[in-house]
């Protein structure tokens, strides 16, 4: 009984902090672990699949900006057009102080401008999706592509109504309401 009252208290506190979240819809489908900030593996796989769908549908539309510097320029010019920011770093990148400073600045800018952010622990799967199967973001015979920051923008022609994007955005919103400002997602290897 005490656990149930704690959950109700938790929900009422979270609803007060995050009023834009539809309490009945969002939290009614969440498990107790999710209420404590722990997502089930099934839920994480579902969001990872949705993220992959977003990337694969945005790429042919030209709605992807790749690279830390290119992303910073795009954010500076038109932040209202950005619908998602993905920051990816491999294990060896964690020690790159300059990259971590760039990540911090991009995260701060995205939070200030209400842009959803996700973090990934690997650039390899991003390279497979965004560079047509090229290993480590190196197109055949070309220079390596900086996949540390990927922005997904909305096409100017119309409002982008993608159910996969809605799912990713809902996950980001739920994570923020649980004080996880930059949730970590890992795309499954293929």
UniProtKB/TrEMBL annotation:
The keyword Methyltransferase does not apply. GO terms for biological process: DNA damage response; regulation of cell cycle. It holds the Pfam family Ribosomal_L7Ae. Residues 50-129 form the Ribosomal protein eL8/eL30/eS12/Gadd45 domain. It is found in: Nucleus. The keyword Membrane does not apply. One of its GO terms (cellular component) is nucleus. Its main location: nucleus. InterPro entries: GADD45, Ribosomal_eL30-like_sf, Ribosomal_eL8/eL30/eS12/Gad45. Keywords: Cell cycle, DNA damage, Growth arrest, Nucleus, Phosphoprotein. Belongs to the GADD45 family. This is Growth arrest and DNA damage-inducible protein GADD45 alpha.
